[in-house]
Amino acid sequence: MELKKGYFITFEGADGCGKTTQIELLNNFLNQKGIETLMTLEPGATDLGKNLRQILLHYEKPVSDEAEMFMYLADRAQHAQMIIKPALDEKKVVLCDRYIDSTVAYQGYGRDGNIEQINILNKIATKGLKSDLTLLFDVESEIAQNRLGKTKDRLESQGMEFHKKVRNGYLELAKQNPQRIKVINANRTIDEVFLNVKNVIGEFLNI
Ligand code: TYD
Predict the structure, then answer these.
(1) In Å, how far from its chain's centre is CA 8?
(2) Nearest atom within ligand 1 for CA of residue 103
(3) N or C: which end of the chain has fewer CB within 10 A?
């Protein structure tokens, strides 16, 4: 099934919200319907990004907040320009695990960064490429923490308080962008959440 144009759909949420499972389910579902997709992620979709991801998630010495932010933005610039934009030009449905909103939620709300500045930097990095639709997987911090278990990387090991700040930041973003951001209750089972995802996407893509 050829679509009239490309669609850019991003998946967002605090750690442990289950969005990675859902993006894979949706990717299979759309492919079964004959819709061409590109499933991708941040950080780490490009070769440059893979190097940055390694540092972002596993570097053990202290990293300044600004250095961290610029690495996410560098990853995004490469990703948006080299991978996402060309796929949209080919009329694909791009399913992206994290994008612009992650930097606002984590580096902005989570780390008390300046959100106005982050918005400007995001715009520069992406040359203004925004998602058409964003699914925000909202999960209670206690449930997320249980899901994450013991295998935590540098960012995930920062605890409950940080998680709550990120979660509330996302909810604030959803309030400010009700057209673009759809909140999905991710406290439920995988099947229940996916039913919700299919409904939202079905309506959005008219399929
Ligand atoms: P990852 O293991 O991919 O986590 P997840 O499966 O939850 O997406 O790690 C990505 C981490 O990077 C995650 O903790 C969120 C963080 N992050 C930011 O802090 N800022 C950003 O701009 C992005 C894209 C991710």
Answers:
(1) 12
(2) 22
(3) N
For 5, phi and psi rounded to 5 degrees?
-150, 175
What span, in angstroms and rounded, lies between the C-alpha atoms of 198 and 201?
5
Structural fold of domain 7-205:
Rossmann fold (3.40.50)
Give the separation between CA 39 and CA 97, rounded to whole angstroms. 8
> How far, in Å, from the CA of 103 to the mean position of ligand 1?
9
Q: Is it the case that residue 40 has pLDDT exceeding 60?
A: yes
* Average per-residue pLDDT for the chain: 95
Q: Is the CB of 156 under 6 A from ligand 1?
A: yes
Residues 83/39, Cβ–Cβ less than 8 Å: no
Q: Which of 17, 121, 155, 170 to mutate to test ligand 1, by most ligand atoms within 8 A of the CB atom?
A: 155
Burial environment of residue 178 by CB neighbours within 10 A (0 to 12, 13 to 18, 19 or more) = exposed
The predicted-structure confidence for 127-162, as pLDDT tens digits, reads as follows 999 999 999 999 999 899 888 876 666 556 678 899
Q: To the nearest whole percent, how much of the chain has pLDDT over 90?
A: 89
- pLDDT of 72-98, one tens digit each? 999 999 999 999 999 999 999 999 999
Distance of CA 140 to the CA centre of its chain: 17
